[in-house]
């Protein structure tokens, strides 16, 4: 079940395009943004809304790594550990990031649900290695100092959002 706002957004996109296939990526994105990841039920719902087969829609979700079928933390930190980044210390950076967040070396989600850390392949910003994206926004030339500043800022952001939510 989507929020009213997301449902309206979805309807608006669907009504804009005569070919509903063109709307599948933005439609899936709206649902994922709202729910953090896509369940089988979400995929079925989008397929039905767009008159596509569930298999076809599932294949699209599986093809694009931006779509997620597992819950993630509020902040998804994807660290590139591909060769050019690795040559600039991305592997070690990744290990230290996991350690800093109390995660196992392979990454995962913090118990408070705030951070999910995972390794990814080239993010196409090799000249600014080591690189990561946080909820799809790039952060470049990472160091342990920038890592700590980013974590502190995200914690602060999340606390503020919780505070704002409590006051609403
Ligand atoms: S190898 Fe990391 S951005 Fe290309």
What proportion of the residues is helical, as a percent range?
40-55%
**Mean pLDDT, as a whole number?**
92
Count of alpha and pi helical runs: 7
Please give the CATH class of the largest domain: Alpha Beta
Estimate the strand proportion: 5-15%
User: In sequence order, what are the helices and strands, one letter per element?
Assistant: HHHHEHHEEEEH
CATH architecture of the largest domain: 3-Layer(aba) Sandwich
Tell how many strands the DSSP assignment holds: 5
Rg over C-alpha atoms, rounded to the nearest angstrom: 18 Å
Present as ligands are: FE2/S2 (inorganic) cluster
Globally, the shape reads: globular
Query: How many angstroms separate the termini?
Result: 22 Å
- Which structural class should the secondary elements be placed in? alpha+beta
List keywords for this structure.
168 residues, alpha+beta, Arc Repressor Mutant, subunit A, Glutaredoxin, 2 domains, 5 strands, globular, binds FE2/S2 (inorganic) cluster
Report on this structure.
- By secondary structure, the protein is an alpha+beta fold.
- It folds into 2 domains: 4-63, Arc Repressor Mutant, subunit A; 75-167, Glutaredoxin (3-Layer(aba) Sandwich), CATH 3.40.30.
- The chain is 51% helix and 12% strand.
- The chain has 7 helices and 5 strands.
- It has a 5-stranded mixed sheet, covered by helices on one side.
- Helix 1 packs antiparallel against helix 2 (24-35).
- The longest helix has 24 residues, at 144-167.
- The radius of gyration is 18 Å and the shape is globular.
- The two termini are 22 Å apart.
- The mean pLDDT is 92.
- The structure holds FE2/S2 (inorganic) cluster (FES).
- FE2/S2 (inorganic) cluster is lined by residues 80, 82, 84-85, 122-126, 129, 131.
